[in-house]
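Q: My labmate handed me this sequence with no annotations at all. I'd like to see what the chain might look like in three dimensions before we decide whether it's worth expressing. Could you predict it?
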Amino acid sequence: MAARNLAQAQSKAGIRKKKVSEIGVSDLAHVGLGTPAGEWLRCYWLVVGTTEELRDIPVGVKILGEELVLFRDLNGRIGLVGLHCPHRGSSLEYGEIEASGIRCPYHAWLFDVAGNCLEQPAEPKDSQFHKKVKHLSYPVQQQGGLIFAYLGPEQDDPPPLPNYSPLIDSGGQRYVESIRYYDYNWFNFIENGVDPVHFSVLHRSDPGDGTWRSWFFNRHDIPHFDAVETDYGVKVISRKPGPTLDTEYVDEKSVALPSILQIGDLEFTHFHKPPSALAEGTHIQHIMFVTPNDDDHFMLFTADCYTGPDPDFFPKLAATRPPPPEEKKRDYDHRKHTPFRGSVRHEDIMTQGTQGPIDQRDEHLAASDRGVILLRKRIVNAMKTVQRGGLPEGVLTQEQAGAVVKIDSFTGIRAKGVL
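A: Here is what I predict for the chain of 419 residues:
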């Protein structure tokens, strides 16, 4: 974003423009208009919906603090426009979908997907006033069942949408999950992706059950891991000695800027496979896009690409994700997140949802937090780049249009020392 645009946004939002030297980790908690993290995130295409869940009614969404409405007109075009009609402010979430766009339920003003006002039925027949009304709208694109929007500067010439490998791979099977909604800060979820130690502790299972997961992520023998910078962001590589002297068992988890996680061990962890099964290596890319609604809520969009031999992989995978055990809660246990043990997702929600936002914690980071420290450093540097008027890492130039983003998420056996 150009420096002048950032200054204008901060002025509009009543935010004092920060000096580059003042930007730090605490800024990651705030994503509104004019904030360092908010303006940085606006430089990227963000996922705002799924094609399957966008049906024949408008959907109200909040993205980076902005109230918007997502809809598909009767000609199949998708629009993302301001929630409140620019006439008198009524909500377009209750608007009527037509071939040309969305019509306000209050006075029937009609807007197309680009925010152009096409009709104002109560105005004089020869009125051209509708041409002077331009409603807030953002560009959208579809890829792999997900709907991406660009909320940044240069709306008429946005950066190219990256081609994410799991979404465009023509081989194998693809599956897009229903949108998940969370009521805590977005960055708590993101930095969890480069903290592999928590998998051994929080998601622990019986170390004697013979599975790869229980052996590899044994809380009494936590695997060593490296935190590595990549072109797309950060990855953590957990390792244990392999079946031969020159090999090792490896599990990679990655975070791509701005807010994308990818892991590749689902088929091994969820299906309780033994260590010997890792000789085949990873067959799945499990990619997660995090989109902040505001400082206290975010949405999670998940897509999988499976290239293994099982034609029924995804129905079987769904069956391995039961809710927490239905145990009787003690009458005196009034804790919000109990019971949570036995479900990886609920275990994450409990821990991440009780951390508090990053700017309100009194932390004592240790050597095992090296993945978290590295990711924070990368993002703080990216925010500073935007504040200076530059293009942050992960945003494509027009010359890079069509580039495929491949994010590392290998799980299996390979030669020692490979990063």
